[in-house]
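Predict structure. Input: TetR/AcrR family transcriptional regulator, 193 residues.
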Amino acid sequence: MKRDQITRQLILKAALECFSKNGYVNTSLNDIVKISGISKGGIYWHFKSKEEMFVQMIEEEYEPWLNTIHSALSILSDPLEKLKKYGELFYSQIDLPVFKLMPESYWGEVGEQYRDRLNQCYSKDDELIYAVFTEAIANNQLRITDAKALTWIYISMLEGLFAELSLRSEKKDELVAYFEKGIDIFLEGIKRK
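Output follows.
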């Protein structure tokens, strides 16, 4: 890895630490300078703004998550099992720093040009789940045949449960059980009998 790439990764690692600890809004460039040991000028050499750094960090941290999902789902043949596994993997990521930052990336101070990049990043999940719902519909496994609506509702449900789980960490075990139950209720409700 070239020196520029090493420096960039060092900055992103420090940014992840700072954003995870303080949130996006409450993290200053000085915080990242302090943790990384890289000057502000050095940081600005690699990133135009704090926003760009935040989005780049999310994109790079999100990629391994997508690889995990693809690997886990590729060994399953039944689309309904894939959907259940996706839900289980979704809530199992609650403690990863990048996932704790997701609500801020949706509703935080990130500018529109960067929000588009974040949406592209997150839409990769949507595309994957849409394909699984399409497969289940083709296999005549579902009562509802609108893959787009199913995708939107399922992911929205998971994100809502995830937000609740991340906000109420004191009841984590209880909420994980609700998360699992929510997935089961949803999948049973759409399954062809």
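DSSP finds ten helices and no strands in the chain.
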